[in-house]
Amino acid sequence: MDYTPIHHIPLIQDDKLFKMNSDTTALMLGMKIKPHETVLDIGTNHGVLLLEASIFQPSWMVGIDINELSIEVAQKNMSLNNISNVTLLCADVTTHQFDQKFDVIISNPPFFSESTHTYSQTPSKQLAKFTSSLTTESLLLVIKKNLNPQGRAYIVFRSAALASFFMEASKQKLSITNIQGVNDNRIEHYKSCVITIEHGSSKSLVLSKPLQL
Question: 161: which DSSP letter?
């Protein structure tokens, strides 16, 4: 049995899927969820972000993943923790039609290009690793379509790719309103950051205090 790093919620993890890492923890620290809000987790994997989100008493949560095994494990984790205000969907988020918009969208999306990184040992990990399964453009289109007008999305992303993220967000008339670097003592630079995204193309950007892991 494993436990989430912030609120120590019991958690089942499957070796065929990517396990929690520093990016997961950073997103847990950076996401802001208020009571009674609705939450969408894109690429829910084990459902670990939904477990942490449940602490803030959202009215409803939805986790979606293209990988059937991820949904099976996430369902076990919801049952393990008696979380019932959640829907888990095995579907492609780029084509799925949700019946509502969400106050908060969270995602730890794929980072890597198949041309620059080796293939993972399992098909499940390969889906979660490569941007071919969810490009930045596709992710931002999903956010634009499914985020409430006054809502916000929290994404953990590689700092080295921020320029392309800004360009794609601008194309979709979305604003990056907050960036928090992830301060990991094991490395000297901010490898990742947590980005806040909102509707609109002219909102101010705040550089907040880095997240300390």
Answer: G
Q: What residues are paired with 194 via a beta bridge?
A: 156, 180
For the chain, give the number of residues. Answer: 213
Residue of 93, 105, 200 whose CA lies nearest to 149: 200
Whether 98 contacts 62, CB under 8 Å: yes
Q: What angle do CA 71, 77, 81 make, to 5 degrees?
A: 145
* Separation CA 156–CA 134 (nearest Å): 14
For the entire predicted model, the pTM comes to 0.90
The pair of structure tokens assigned to 185 is 């003592």
How far apart are the C-alpha atoms of 196 and 179, rounded to whole Å?
7
3-state SS, residue 116 = coil
pLDDT 10s digit of each residue in the chain, 213 long? 899 999 999 999 999 998 999 999 999 999 999 999 999 999 999 999 999 999 999 999 999 999 999 999 999 999 999 999 999 999 999 999 999 999 999 999 875 454 444 555 565 555 544 455 688 999 999 999 999 999 999 999 988 889 989 999 999 999 999 999 998 776 666 789 999 999 998 899 999 999 988
Note whether 41 and 103 are within 8 A (CB). Answer: no
Domain that holds residue 173: 2-212
Question: How many other β-carbons are positioned within 10 Å of the β-carbon of residue 185?
Answer: 7
Q: How many domains does the chain have?
A: 1
**For the domain that residue 23 is a member of, what is the CATH number?**
3.40.50.150
Residues 58/41, Cβ–Cβ less than 8 Å: no
